[in-house]
Amino acid sequence: MYRLLLIMCLVGLVLSACTSGNAPTNQGFLKNFEGNPLMAEAVADQMIEFVTDLQISANERKQPITDPAILRAMDDTFIEARRVRDSAFTMQDEGKKGGFHGIQESFVEGEALLVGETLYFGYEFRTDPALDMHVFLSKHVTPSTEAELQSEPLMDLGPLQNILGPQEYRVGPLSPADWNQYRTVALYSAPLKRVIGYAQIRGNPKKEE
Q: By three-state DSSP, how is residue 10 classified?
């Protein structure tokens, strides 16, 4: 569903550039995703894939794209996609990232990224719809049970915003010690007294002052 939506938006991005004869003008579309480095990477990759597929398909039909305006729009799209992707990679390198997995029969997938004072979920995040799930930042490395989750310091970031897709959670400032020690993002259902899944996040440690 998200992939189809992105492709439709990318079609509009290229067509808007073609009709204007200038660089891509749909900047609002891009800026909607640049705030989340995981989503920005996914969008940039799909921008490049989309424009590449346009050229390949045209060549296979023996109808290569020769219109200068369209070729210019495609080049501009490549340039913008690389800029967005490079910026996303830079932000990701400054943070801590890891992949989700479910506990026992629970299903969770996707990526979590902690950068600065914000926790991000990526484009491919999905989870089972358990009751009243909350997102926790935990110092326990592998909190597979309620007891393990509560045995180490943890931070409640609030209710899960959605069972699929990108989202953001305010963490607030962390000391270097806390930055290094908060190593897991956990999804927990209080009514079920159950950890649904977690992601171990890793990155460059910060020096303690």
A: helix
Residue 125 sits at φ, ψ, to 5 deg, of -65, 130
Residue that is last in its domain, among 70, 93, 116: 93
- Taking the C-alpha atoms of residue 163 and residue 174, their distance in angstroms, rounded to an integer, is 27
pLDDT tens, N- to C-terminus, the chain (209 residues)? 444 444 444 444 444 444 444 444 444 566 777 789 999 999 999 999 999 999 999 999 999 999 999 999 999 999 999 999 999 999 999 999 999 999 999 999 999 999 999 999 999 999 999 999 999 999 999 999 999 999 999 999 999 999 999 999 999 999 999 999 999 999 999 999 999 999 999 998 988 76
Final residue before a domain boundary, out of 93, 128, 148:
93
CA distance linking residue 109 with residue 197, whole number of Å = 9
Report how far residue 122's alpha carbon sits from residue 117's, in angstroms, rounded to the nearest whole number.
16
Beta bridge partner(s), residue 113 = 97, 120
Instruction: With CA atoms as reference, report the closest residue to 184 among 164, 203, 208.
Output: 203
pTM listed for this prediction:
0.83
d(CA 70, CA 82): 18
Domain with 86 in it: 2-93
Angle at the Cα of 134 from the Cα atoms of 157 and 42, rounded to 5 degrees: 75
